[in-house]
Amino acid sequence: MAGKRDQKKREVFDALYQSALRLFDSKGYDAVTVSEITRAAGVAKGTFFNHFPAKADILAEWYRRLMADVMDTPATDDSLPLAEAALEVAHQTISLSAASPQLWQATTQLSPVTPSIQTVEAENDRAVRNHYIRLARRAISKGHLPSDTDPDKLGDLYLTLFTGTVRQCVVTGRREEILPDLKRRFEALASIAARTGLP
């Protein structure tokens, strides 16, 4: 019995989630009400709050799924230089988010006031940081960086460049500049790290 209840709960969750995304994409996040989402999903309005504390929590779920897809995508080439390998995660993120620019914009704007988005961002930041640390360790092991390079600090710097550049470009409406800006900044950091090791 519990299995059927859980399955029904998942089905309602997915119906609300998918209905909300369709509405957000067609009308824009701000223009969509919870009543419209529940009507499109075919459930009572109160049911929404059994699954999502607020409308913005749908954005948190969207962002969690998007970044899970990014992190589950295997690296294309193990021999890429550090800056290019670091840029892969950014490229995959931008490519996936480009399919839903309104959701990306709303998530970025609501992040400072939405705890669930902040939680997902923190989880994603840890995953991306760990990825950059692995890339730094690989570059050290291949002799591309000095042996005394601190991979944790380098991972922190790459994460900061990644998140800061994305936020800067999205908030200022310069989405098309994200990848060129990241490429330039990632290459500069790789060059500095190769010379100094950033201990």
TrEMBL record:
Q: Which residues form a coiled coil?
A: none
Q: Which Pfam families match?
A: TetR_N
Q: Which InterPro entries match?
A: DNA-bd_HTH_TetR-type_CS, Homeodomain-like_sf, HTH-type_TetR-like_transc_reg, HTH_TetR, Tet_transcr_reg_TetR-rel_C_sf
Named from the GO MF annotations, one term is: transcription cis-regulatory region binding
Q: Is-annotated flag, keyword Repeat?
A: no
Q: Which domain of life is it from?
A: Bacteria
Question: Where do transmembrane segments lie in this chain?
Answer: none
Keyword set for this entry?
DNA-binding
Q: What's the protein here called?
A: Uncharacterized protein
Q: Which organism is it from?
A: Hyphomonas pacifica
Q: What is the lineage of its organism?
A: Bacteria, Pseudomonadati, Pseudomonadota, Alphaproteobacteria, Hyphomonadales
